Amino acid sequence: MELDIHERDIAPELCQECAACCRVRATVKDTDSRFRVFLRTTLREVMIAPAAELGQADCCDERHDITLDHGFCKHLESSTVEDRARHSCGLYGRAEMPSLCCQYNCVSWAKHEGAYHLENKLLVTAQQALNRMRLRDARLRDEVNMPKGRRAYEHRCCQRRRGSR
Ligand code: SF4
Ligand code: SF4
To answer: Cβ atoms within 10 A of the Cβ of 92, count?
Structure first.
């Protein structure tokens, strides 16, 4: 798979298909083993990467960054429509929706961080969602013989402004 997703692709229709950035992760820089063991022992329902081997208190003795993975945001609402997952934000349109969610663009962010590459799992998930949409679009265009260049899904109204987070 190649990455060709562009900043302009980030729109509600795509984000309703993707929702990768609604998985809440945070990096903690330069941790030592003592602190990591503390976190592994005390945190509830949070995965820590890299993980410790089974039966080990920690992954290693070195200092390094770790990622805390809290799973998907508690406000994410997911359903299945026409055999595919559709996601929406329970805070959409409300003042409580974090401004970071309203303004985020995964492609801009990846380029800014020098992370526009296939190691970036979030971007790969977004690209896969875009590819699925393109495929559906092409099939639909074939079915209705739609003029090339027009998006088959462009008329749909969006319920979720995830595209601009
Ligand atoms: S901003 Fe990017 S990662 Fe987040 S939901 Fe939209 S396409 Fe997916
Ligand atoms: S508040 Fe909404 S957009 Fe932000 S992470 Fe949660 S579900 Fe996603």
So the answer is: 17
pLDDT, tens digit, for every residue of 93-129? 999 999 999 999 999 999 999 999 999 999 999 999 9
Choose which residue among 4, 104, 160, 161 to substitute to test ligand 1 binding: the one with the highest number of ligand atoms within 8 A of its C-beta. 104
CB 59 within 8 A of CB 90: no
Q: Tell me which ligand sits closest to the C-alpha of residue 109.
A: 1
Query: Which sequence spans correspond to the domains of the chain?
Result: 7-164
Atom of ligand 2 nearest to the CA of 97: 1
pTM, 2 dp: 0.79
What's the CA gap between 165 and 161, in Å, rounded?
A: 7
